[in-house]
Structures are given as C-alpha cells and as structure tokens.
Amino acid sequence: MADYVLEHPEETAQLTIGELADRTEVSQPTVIRFVRALGFDGYRTFRYAFLRERREGAERTPAFRHLGGFDLKPWDKLPDLPLREVRVTGQLLEETLRSLAPGELDRAAGMLAAARTIDIYGVENSCVPAGDLLTKLTYLGLNCRVHTDAYLQQISAAHLGPEDAAVAFSHSGCSIDTVKALKQARKAGAGTIAVTGRKEPVLAKYADICLCTGGAELTIYGTAIYSRIPDLAVVDLLYTGIILSDYERFSSSLDKSCAVIADRGYLEE
Q1: Model's pTM, two decimal places?
Q2: Which of 46, 80, 233, 263 is the most buried (most CB within 10 A)?
C-alpha cells in the first residue's frame, strides 16, 4: 500500500477506501490499519490531508484560507490542544511585552483618566476587549460608552469634543468600521488611542497614541481566534495605569463601586 500511495499520489487522492483496497489487492480493514499507523483516525482524514497537500503543492493560491495561520488539522484530538493553545498564548503575550512602548502606555492611561467622556470602538472579536475596558473604566467611575453597532459608533464619535477620548481595538488595524469611527473621533477633536497588532496599521493614521501588541494574525475560518488575548492584556495595563495616575481618587471610586455590588453574591450556608 505504501509503495502504491507514493507512486500514484494523484490517483490516491481521488480513490474511495474500496477502490484503494482493490488497487492494492488488500482488504478494507488493512487500509484502515494503514492510515491509522500513519497517525490518522480514519480514511476520510487521510484522504482530506492528501487532497489538501496536492492542492497546496500546486502553483495556485486559494482565494480563502479557512485555516490560515492556525495549526489545526482534521485528525487532531481535542485532548492534545490545550498545551498547544497555552504555548501560543504565552508567545503572544511575550510578543506584546516586546512591542508595547511603556511611554505610550503611560500617555494613554493619563488621557483616559482625564477624559470627560470615553468612546470605545471595535467589531467582531474586538468587542471582547472593548466590553472589558468598558467594565473596568465604569468601576473606576469614568464616563464611557460602547456601541456594538458600527453606525452608532461613528455617530457617537461625531458628538465627542476636545475634552473627550476614544479607544479603538482592531488586531488587523484595518477594519473599515473601526477606522471610520476613530477617524470621526479625531475630526471631532477628541484624543484618540489605537490598540492594534500591526506596527504600521491604517488605524494608526488617526491615533494620537498607538499601542502595538505585535504578533501574527492567527485565523480559523476567517476569525482571528487569538486577537483578544493581547488586547485584554493591554486593557488590564490601562486599568492599572489609570489607578496609579491618581491612586487616591480611583481607589475611592473602586471602593464605592464594590460597595454597591457587595450583596450580589450568594453567601455560603
């Protein structure tokens, strides 16, 4: 079977399990044992991998890479993924540490601490860090708002002024709706902050401060599955930076916020 597969790769990629068994004069159970010995859980994943390898070896680029950047194979086992994901997360956070400029982070925290109103923009996966920043700034007693609708983000940005600030999250740095919202905020005179993974993104053109997290854009079926991890780390850094900018003021705000919800958890009986 191995000799046949190596000598007839194009044909093998098109054969059913029964046809391959007939061509190699073995039983179908032998075919199954063969593909499992190669590390596949069945003939379907073996054939899928073979077809994909032949396509990727051809001199043409697919229009849409559904697993672009993320190492996930159809024969992977779920128990094997946690360690891989933890390693990827660690690498992204280390890249964030190398890419962030401490001076810019300090400026961003100061801008938010002094703002009258803070707008936060983001779409798709970036809604996660946007919502987290909203929660943390609200705990600190700051006036902030998030709209998940892209039109409302731009309308909200148009009503900002010189005493306000806007924060935009976009891992690619080129999400059209997010760029438009930050551009509108800057046009209105507000201070602007961009949180992005690229060093020279479109978003940075309209940002007074650009916090670059670095890292590759890992996607699966078009979704940047890891982009929120470095962004959430930046949110935590901004949160602590704001507290440190006026410790007495913001620690008092936190005490007040926590007192309001102190009775919201179940007590142990």
Answers
A1: 0.72
A2: 46
